[in-house]
Amino acid sequence: MAGRSVKNELKELYYRMALIRAFEEKVLFLFEKGILKGTTHVCIGQEAIAVGSCSELNKGDYVVSSHRSHGHYLALGGDVNKLMAEIFGKSTGCCGGRGGSQHIFDLGIGFLGGNGITGGGIPLAAGAAFSAKYRKSLQAVLCFFGDGATNQGTFHESLNMASLWKLPAVFVCENNLYGMSTPVCASVSGGRIAERAAAYKMAFCRIDGNDILEIKKAVKKALADARKGRGPSFIEMRTYRHKGHSKSDRCLYRSREEEAAWLKKCPLANAGKLIAKKDLLKIDESVKKEVEEAVEFAAGSPVPVL
């Protein structure tokens, strides 16, 4: 890849991460002000996983997400206006305002949805991968879920079947160290997640979920293996959510020292070191404007007709 092309790709990756960060920060602000109702789960601090992984997909591939799905949708190229309108519960949303924050869906870009049930999307991903293999379409499925989902029966059942049938799926565990308020060390026997895939004779690895280039490399290989009929892969990406599990979580179970240490590993800051400062400023200004326009679009949109 030519030097200029690499620079352009890095700027595009940073733009996607910055857009997700700006979007999530605005969503939290709107909930705090009482403009939005209900709850939401933001992915601030985990942007590199969504962007780095989705950047390796081909057109026609599928993505299955979790309750923390805004970032995956935007990383896949989803419309920021439609996403904001969906969270506002407006008819111009990607699900007509009926899905809300946890149940985003957009078949037009291959986004098979978020899921309010922990681990609920994993068997859906296996089903989509089976469909792709049955049709010999060369499509692959990227499935995102948190560390808590690896304790669900759906996780083990789906990985078992995916491995037996060599389905073209890549299972990505976003290990942010806490399943809601419970640390991984208190909920996962042995404390290690990636090795669970070994029980199903599935290729697996553990990587830095805040390093977007390492993420791209791992997902690229896993997707290539999936398309070549080598079966599924499991990638544990270690990261940290900067905010609470949901909008009302004050993170009383975490120390401020732990949070400060992880803030220094911010994925945007890591990627920003590879980009010129003037470009960073331009991107940051651009995404803030884009998000503000999305709020205006959503606020001015009509409610669904029941």
Descriptive notes:
This protein is an alpha/beta fold and 306 residues long. The protein has one domain (3-299): Rossmann fold, CATH 3.40.50. It is built from 10 helices and 7 strands. The protein has helices spanning 3-32, 47-54, 70-75, 80-88, 121-135, 153-164, 212-227, 256-263, 267-272, 277-299; strands spanning 62-64, 141-146, 169-175, 178-179, 182-183, 203-208, 233-238. A 5-stranded parallel β-sheet has the order 1-2-3-7-6, sandwiched between helices. A two-stranded antiparallel sheet has the order 4-5. A hairpin with a 2-residue loop joins β4 (178-179) and β5. α2 packs across α7 (212-227), α4 (80-88) crosses α10 and α5 (121-135) packs parallel to α6. The protein is globular and about 50 Å long. The N and C termini lie far apart (52 Å).
